[in-house]
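S.,

Sequence below, as promised.
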Amino acid sequence: MADNYVDEIEKKLSNTSMENTGVSFEGKALKLNSEDDAKEVISAINCCENLHYLNLEGNTLGVDAAKGIAKALESHSEFKRALWKDMFTGRMKTEIPKALVRMNHGLVLAGAKLTELDLSDNAFGPIGVEGLVMLLQSDPCHTLQILKLNNNGLGISGGKMLARALLDCYNSSKQNGKALALKVFIAGRNRLENEGAKALAEVFKTVGTLEEVAMPQNGIYHVGITALSEAFMNNPSLRVLNLNDNTVTAKGAGALASALPSLQKLEELNLGDCLLKTKGALLLAEALTEAHKELTAVHLGFNEIRARGGLELAKAMRNKEKLTVLDLGGNQFGENGRQELQSELKDSGRLSTLGSLSQPMEGEKDSSSRRQNNGRDDTEDGTETIESEEDKSIEKKDESTGDLERAIQEIQNVKLNDSSETKEITVTETKTVTVEEFCQCPTPERFIALGSNRIELILNEIKELSKDEYLEKLMPILMKISAICGSNSDPAKQAALKCSDALYKELFKWAEKQEQTSIVNNSLLVHLGLIKSEDKKMKLLWNLDGCMTALENAVRQDYFPQGARETLQIFLNRQVVDMETKNAILPHNYKPALYVKNIWLMHKNMFQHVCILKYVLMNTNFE
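The prediction came back faster than expected:
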């Protein structure tokens, strides 16, 4: 009996050693276009006796190269781990699904049984997801335990397609005798939002075997969080839950609190930057107080939690003997509140777990002097006004009027849509004007007077400029033409839209060629009034309504870099204040910023354009 036991142990150790064998070309930056380009990879696969993993991260794989690699995989039925993160850089949107289908074909012929699939950091878009769907629906994925799809740009439609594919995989595998037993699901930064989250919640509820779920930065509000929470109840083995940087709010926290009693194996909980506020913290603290003794890390930083909420969370950690990390930084405890929290953790022997509290949010300034109540909430029970569905309600005015006034003064030189600056001047001459004459007086009439070859004229004006002069000359021209997109003259508006599109395309083409992408992104932010220029004399003398209209069109085009879209999204994701009333104004589905320094002042007649642009950036699937 003892001999059999030893034999079994040795067999397991041998299997463990074998499963660590494979081929890795991680970070080699290989451009694998043809089968010939992939010879080195193919040779390595053929020479590996026990190929349990293939790591192609940081290379770029074309369809023909994928065909050759897939052929090599056909002889490796033992293959288990497809580590294919970031392997489609620079590929056309039509190439990705074809390459995935080729790779999948090799796995099917090999009879492989995958346990891990990592396709993170590949810009699928809706077309690329089709290749992923075919892969997930195939037999090799019936044994999948780990699925990593971080930063794939899935969007709502992609999230739904993914959910359907996983349900199909579950049903097919169940019919074959053993249902899909997914343990790890990672899909951060995918713009899944409520609908995508709800679709995936059905998968989680059906599978019931999850041990780790990470879905940070997906624009999920309490509706989606509630659906996920209900699904988590059916996954009692869940150890790691990361929903960082979604708009959970107290309503979502309530749903999670209801699910927590079912998750007694939970080790890590990350709800940082989720707008929980004090009420959400109190709900979570109550749910965590009695049990959850396996917890090792709790992240609840940057949630606008005030002193009472922080104290109750600290009390909830008393019986968590395995706790090593308690992150409550960036909340609004006040000096006395921080001292109370630290005292509670010291009494319970948990002070060593507490992270830094030295960087509270801007809104906490002078909170203790304003309230005179040890940094506690304004009400005894800690209740607060909770956002309605999708955060539709208007955010409360900032409690510190002084902070808001200072923010207004910082942008005193920016005059948006000032009629004295953007007034149209009628041109009576019928003669053609030059680009320089148009720039001196950029009216719709003068723009039309440039003639039908206006795009060629402008490009000729800038093509001979030096690298240092290029942006300085082109950006004002682009803005002045874009501004006409907001005029009342339809012919001029349409011509300006076409011309601005051509100039944006030329701008980003130049940026890539000159390796000046970050400089161009920064210049664009300055000329759109999103950040201040280092040149204090610079004034925005163009109609930003029209500029936003032109930008809305440009961001939808294939030439517009994803990095530029992400940069714009960051700077649009801020609280907006009407310059005249100094009241916050928020559109439907618009997440407010949390910092006074990020307040953006504008007139309401420009606000609609900003909302549309933000919606386009968040809801359109880009490559």
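The chain has a mean pLDDT of 80.

Coffee later?
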